[in-house]
Write a structure and sequence with these properties.
This protein is an alpha/beta fold. The protein folds into 2 domains: 179 residues, D-Maltodextrin-Binding Protein, domain 2; 104 residues, D-Maltodextrin-Binding Protein, domain 2. The protein has 13 helices and 14 strands. Strand 2 and strand 3 form a beta hairpin.
Length: 310
């Protein structure tokens, strides 16, 4: 999701969603006085938006039965516009994808990266934001390009696609950890030079753990020629996120995408990105190849991704 996870994990998750469905709040009864417009969105329960998330602050987490975090706040804003009541279900990343693909939930959010493979099994909204290639770096150190990473100790979380990118950096040593805390611990101790994680995770750690003495830097993305020469470097580029829905949820996807686009125009998206320490210039301006990746795939040939300043 801001982290891009391996698609393979979804294969083992179908059973998991059935086990975790009980973690949601409340039953399946529809709210009273559901309007015809809301009912026409085609959610599993009229007037209710069943959402699968995993605990991944500050993108998604559950507090008092409500989803909070950047993705949570975006979805809450949209659900209010569409007159939908959010019913969250907590699982893991594999369960999120499986829940959508088996249509056990209406939507999943939390930095899910768009990919050509994933869109074959579900629908993606327009990008609520774009995740820039962020690095956790010890204070006083500066790394700008992939070339600067040569021979360094580089850390990330097991299963994240940055594993492949790091393995392709000449003479770099990969340090893979079960979770982000391991990356930060070794970074603070000097055993790792750079950590690759989702940007808001790094920004939050800076605030919560000043003892680590780390800063957030953004890698200059490799060029198309560099990626052609070394395809694994593609994961050092910006990736577009999306809210992920079942294949049949076409009306709901269009409605959510419409509201996402409106949030770019009215300033609400910039406001929420800043709330969690992000830079709208980094998060809300798509790279040149974003449109090309989706045109004539799951978007029209003339589609332009949302962006601030348009």
């Amino acid at each position: 999701m801001f982290r891009v996870r391996s698609l393979a994990v979804a294969l083992a998750a179908t059973v998991l969603m059935s086990l975790t469905a009980a973690c949601g709040s409340g039953g399946d009864d529809a709210p009273t006085n559901v309007s015809a417009k809301t009912a026409a969105l085609g959610t599993l329960t009229p007037g209710v938006l069943k959402v699968a998330i995993e605990p991944y602050a500050p993108y998604t987490s559950l507090q008092g039965g409500k989803i909070v975090g950047l993705d949570g706040d975006i979805l809450t804003y949209i659900a209010k516009k569409l007159d939908l009541e959010i019913k969250p279900q907590v699982t893991d990343f594999a369960g999120m994808l499986a829940g959508v693909q088996s249509h056990r939930v209406d939507i999943t959010v939390g930095g899910v990266a768009w990919s050509a493979d994933r869109q074959k099994q579900g629908l993606f909204t327009d990008p609520p934001y774009y995740s820039p290639p962020a690095m956790a770096v010890r204070n006083g150190r500066t790394y700008t390009t992939v070339g600067d990473l040569k021979g360094l100790d580089l850390g990330t979380v097991e299963g994240y696609v940055w594993v492949k990118s790091i393995q392709a950096v000449p003479k770099a040593k990969l340090h893979a950890y079960p979770d982000a805390n391991g990356v930060f611990d070794d970074l603070g101790a000097g055993r790792v030079d750079v950590g690759f994680l989702d940007p808001l995770i790094i920004i939050a750690a800076q605030k919560q753990r000043p003892d680590l003495k780390i800063t957030t830097e953004y890698l200059t993305p490799p060029t198309a020629a560099e990626v052609k020469q070394q395809p694994a470097f593609a994961y050092f580029q910006q990736y577009q996120t999306g809210f992920y829905l079942p294949k049949k949820a076409t009306k709901l996807e269009r409605a959510v995408s419409h509201e996402i686009d409106a949030m770019y125009r009215n300033g609400e998206m910039s406001k929420l990105v800043r709330k969690y320490g992000g830079d709208p210039q980094q998060f809300l301006k798509p790279a040149a190849d974003v449109a090309g990746a989706r045109r004539a795939v799951d978007r029209p040939r003339d589609w332009n991704p949302p962006a601030i300043g348009q």
